[in-house]
What does this fold into?
Amino acid sequence: QVQLVESGGGLVQPGGSLRLSCAASGSIFSINGMGWYRQAPGKQRELVATITSGGSTNYADSVKGRFTISRDNAKNTVYLQMNSLKPEDTAVYYCNAVAGSLILSWGQGTRVTVSS
It folds into this structure.
């Protein structure tokens, strides 16, 4: 099994930055991709960004140019650098790990609030 633990959420003013981390443990050899998703109050969970084991990335249009996903294989950790944050970025952010189309695990979520 794969376990994921997110951290780095918090309260930030509009225009500010945060970096989220997602540390993987357990059967990490089975992971070939990881991603960040978010769920705002009253809305469905949506894709934010994904990264493959080869380093290919994909972003939601709403975050392109502001967010960057990266990974540190030595630390088994994926990051989401979020810049120029907007109030509409407020959500609980979740990371997941996949093996192809199979979702291996979800993290517990970390809350991001963008407000003045």
